[in-house]
Structures are given as structure tokens and as C-alpha cells.
Amino acid sequence: MPIKLPTDFPAKSVLETEDIFAIEEKRAKQQDIRPLRLLILNLMPNKIDTEIQLLRLISQSPLQIDVDFLKLVSHNHKNVSQSHLAKFYLSFADIQNENYDGLIITGAPIEKLPFEEVDYWEELLQVMAWSQLHTTSVIHICWGAQAGLYYHYGIEKIQYDEKLFGVYPQRLRINHRLFRGFDDVFMGPQSRYTGINEHQIREDVLQIVASNEEIGATILISTDDHNIFLLGHFEYDTDSLKREFLRDQSAGLATKLPVNYFEDSSMEKVTNCWRGNAHLLYHNWLNDVYQVTPYHLEDIPKMNGK
């Protein structure tokens, strides 16, 4: 079943050209099922690109999905129109008494800043605390994963000497239902200046699901399965790393070519080797959330034991 989106939502026209179907609100209300309710906290500067990337992945489920987007009002969003935010994004005050099947917290290009120096840190803490009671499952992406690991489990980030940048093989370390159907070794994009202090991981609360010998843990999940931490970017488009590289070059940064990415020195040809993994992961996640969440969303706090 398709995603329900407002008729004039910008991503809708792009997804329709890719034969990804989004149902209009009027028709969706006539269907006698309970759709999944998802909330996306979009911290990325180019919000419309990220909206398209994530909606593309979650749209492949046979379930109808209602999606809300969340903004942090303590931050001045400079790379998106205020009319877009006002029309399509909610504030924490709008959703703090609501329950959702799932939440996605995106990355943000602020890895080098100490967490406490991020201007919206206190508001983000509110959202992460709320998520443990009011959602069935939370996916944290890249910096969002590092922030979540720090807040929930006290795991500090570590600064790299240079940007970790490219497409890396990752090996599954445990069998987990969210990675059902994955190959033992799979590829995924990484783009970050920081990692995590793995010595601070407590096995009684966190499990490393996938890792790379060179760069360490790449995917972690809490032992209660509520919190998922993706240190990479499965949602990236084929040309996302290329655009990041050119942007860094224009800014005078010493970013090296992304590893395992360009097929030759012309930087023209890229083979996407993570798209299938990305769709499978989000399909598995949505199916899992659908199976676990109570039919009545008001029962989620009881399910979470609060």
C-alpha cells in the first residue's frame, strides 16, 4: 500500500516519476485499515533531498503509511524556505502527546561540534527522551546515531584524522530479524568525520550487528530492539557522494576521493551497490514495526513499560 502525502507535497511529483505511488488524502481516508504512523526528524540542511531519499525507501512497503515531518524550532533553518517548513513540518509541541509506530532521526553535518554546543541539542534531547515512550522503534542515522548513542548509553564520539568517505563492505556479526535476507557481507555509504568509542559499548544494552575491520562498528541495535543506529547512509542516492565531494572541493576542504565509489578517474561512472540493501532494511523495519505495534497507538506507552 502507498504512502499518504498531501497533494502539493514537493517530493510527491518526484516519486511519481519513479513509479513510486503516493495516495492522496481523500482516497486514503476511505480505506478500512490502520496505516502506520511514521515521524521523520529531518536535521539535514537540504530537507527536500532527504525527504525524497527516505520516502523512496519507505514507500516500497505494502502497508499504507502516514508520514509527519518534525522540525526543531530552536534552530534557524537556512537552506529551506520557511513556507515549506510552516506547511509540511510539525514542532515538538505539536507531537509531544502523540504516539507513532516509528521515528527516523536523520544525520546532520555537524560532527565536529561537541554535542552540547549544537544549538538545538536541548530540544533534540527532549525528542529522544520522548521517543522511548511514544514510539515502537527509532532509526538513528549517522550523526543522529552518534547523538543517540551518546544520550542513551553515554558512548562518546571520536574525531578522525580525515573524513571517512566512500562505500564500505560490512559484515553481519549476528543474525537479527531486521537484516533478514541480507548477504553476509554488504556495501553501504559512509560520510563522517567522527566515529564512536567502542570500548564504551555495554553488551547488556547494545549489540553490534555489522562492522568493518578497518572502520569498526557500522550498525548497532539496542538489546530491547527499540533503538537502531546506522552510522552510514543507506538512504543516499547514487550521486550523493559525488555531490558531497564536489561541494567539499569547492569549499577548499582536503576531502579525498570516496573509496570504492568511482569506477574510473573520470568520476563519471558510479555503480550503486547498496540500493537493494537499503530497500530491504527499511522494508524489514516497517514490517517489524507493523507486527509489534499495538493496533491502538495509545497503548504504545504501556508496551514500552512506562
TrEMBL record:
User: Gene3D superfamilies of this UniProt entry?
Assistant: 3.40.50.880
**Which top-level enzyme class is recorded in the Swiss-Prot or TrEMBL entry?**
transferase
Keyword check for Amino-acid biosynthesis: yes
Record: residues binding substrate: 163, 191, 247
Report the domain of life of the source organism.
Answer: Bacteria
Q: Which reaction does it catalyse?
A: L-homoserine + acetyl-CoA = O-acetyl-L-homoserine + CoA
The site annotation (Important for substrate specificity) covers 191
Q: Spell out the NCBIfam families in the cross-references.
A: metA (TIGR01001)
Record function comment: Transfers an acetyl group from acetyl-CoA to L-homoserine, forming acetyl-L-homoserine.
Family membership noted in the UniProt record: Belongs to the MetA family.
Recorded protein name is Homoserine O-acetyltransferase
Species name for this entry?
Answer: Candidatus Enterococcus willemsii
